[in-house]
């Protein structure tokens, strides 16, 4: 018979993973309680959530949703759910790892918008801006091009000899 605590933890983990298409598996061993608490707060500010559970329970919950991560679930593992801003959550993890000499938390792999990724992709994602920053840059680029187009159309209109009244 299964341990009731494990059964409850598995049910909570399954519920947490429902509808999640971006998460990271990290090694958290070596973080003090204070740093772990700060990491949780920083992740929450970016729409992330850190869940520490036994590898077996994480593996079962992921397999139930047709995701297999058994190859990276060794040693102390936590799963970091990213709901709103995958790049922002990855940046928080990266910054936290750089803030200590152990490099912890260290990414093991993950799932980004439904695709399995390795640590290199997570690091590249962490180097991007947030979604809002990227949207802002896109709007700026589009605005500059539209401004150029308007300038060209005005110059063409003047060249053809008439200004529309």
TrEMBL record:
<keyword id="KW-0699">rRNA-binding</keyword>
<dbReference type="InterPro" id="IPR043141">
    <property type="entry name" value="Ribosomal_uL10-like_sf"/>
</dbReference>
<comment type="function">
    <text>Forms part of the ribosomal stalk, playing a central role in the interaction of the ribosome with GTP-bound translation factors.</text>
</comment>
<keyword id="KW-0694">RNA-binding</keyword>
<dbReference type="InterPro" id="IPR022973">
    <property type="entry name" value="Ribosomal_uL10_bac"/>
</dbReference>
<dbReference type="Pfam" id="PF00466">
    <property type="entry name" value="Ribosomal_L10"/>
</dbReference>
<comment type="subunit">
    <text>Part of the ribosomal stalk of the 50S ribosomal subunit. The N-terminus interacts with L11 and the large rRNA to form the base of the stalk. The C-terminus forms an elongated spine to which L12 dimers bind in a sequential fashion forming a multimeric L10(L12)X complex.</text>
</comment>
<protein>
    <recommendedName>
        <fullName>Large ribosomal subunit protein uL10</fullName>
    </recommendedName>
</protein>
<dbReference type="GO" id="GO:0070180">
    <property type="term" value="F:large ribosomal subunit rRNA binding"/>
</dbReference>
<dbReference type="GO" id="GO:1990904">
    <property type="term" value="C:ribonucleoprotein complex"/>
</dbReference>
<keyword id="KW-0687">Ribonucleoprotein</keyword>
<dbReference type="GO" id="GO:0006412">
    <property type="term" value="P:translation"/>
</dbReference>
<dbReference type="GO" id="GO:0005840">
    <property type="term" value="C:ribosome"/>
</dbReference>
<dbReference type="InterPro" id="IPR047865">
    <property type="entry name" value="Ribosomal_uL10_bac_type"/>
</dbReference>
<dbReference type="InterPro" id="IPR001790">
    <property type="entry name" value="Ribosomal_uL10"/>
</dbReference>
<comment type="similarity">
    <text>Belongs to the universal ribosomal protein uL10 family.</text>
</comment>
<keyword id="KW-0689">Ribosomal protein</keyword>
């Amino acid at each position: 018979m299964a341990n009731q605590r494990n059964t409850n933890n598995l049910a909570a983990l399954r519920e947490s993973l429902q509808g999640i298409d971006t998460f990271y598996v990290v090694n958290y061993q070596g973080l003090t309680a204070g740093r772990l608490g700060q990491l949780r707060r920083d992740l929450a500010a970016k729409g992330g959530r850190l869940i520490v559970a036994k590898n077996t329970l994480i593996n079962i919950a992921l397999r139930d949703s047709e995701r297999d991560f058994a190859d990276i679930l060794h040693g102390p593992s936590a799963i970091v759910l990213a709901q709103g801003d995958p790049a922002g959550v990855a940046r928080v993890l990266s910054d936290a790892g750089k803030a200590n000499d152990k490099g912890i938390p260290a990414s093991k792999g993950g799932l980004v918008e439904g695709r399995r990724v390795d640590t290199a992709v997570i690091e590249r994602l962490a180097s991007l801006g947030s979604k809002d920053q990227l949207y802002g840059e896109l709007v700026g680029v589009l605005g500059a091009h539209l401004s150029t187009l308007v300038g060209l159309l005005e110059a063409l209109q003047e060249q053809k000899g008439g200004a529309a009244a």
